[in-house]
Amino acid sequence: MSNLSSINKADISDFEKRVYLALLKVPKGQVVTYGALAKLAGFPGAARAVGSAMNKNPFAPSVACHRVVRSDGSVGEFAYGTKRKIAMLRKEGVRIEKERITDFKEIKIA
Length: 110
Hints:
CATH superfamily: Winged helix-like DNA-binding domain superfamily/Winged helix DNA-binding domain
Radius of gyration: 13 Å
Number of strands: 4
CATH topology: Arc Repressor Mutant, subunit A
Shape: globular
Order of helices and strands: HHEHHEHEE
Distance between the termini: 25 Å
Number of domains: 1
CATH class: Mainly Alpha
Number of helices: 5
Helix content: 25-40%
Structural class: mainly alpha
């Protein structure tokens, strides 16, 4: 079953569904901020709620919540620990120093 059909069939809120579907647009090796993901999902200003949705993401790692970071370029929290989030991002080619993404810039998702 694909990520898309799994998300659409899951017993989750409409908000969570839209956030997880939006997160599928973030490619491997890139990151998006909590605020940008909220906006992409159609909920501008809901960055904190996006953080809560990421914390209980039932589709991880297929729906890659480790790619969601803070607006200042720091990696932020992760349900499985910050060290694991950093390791996952580094494995995808994201450069990180002192828990902060080097050369941080938000990706633009159409």
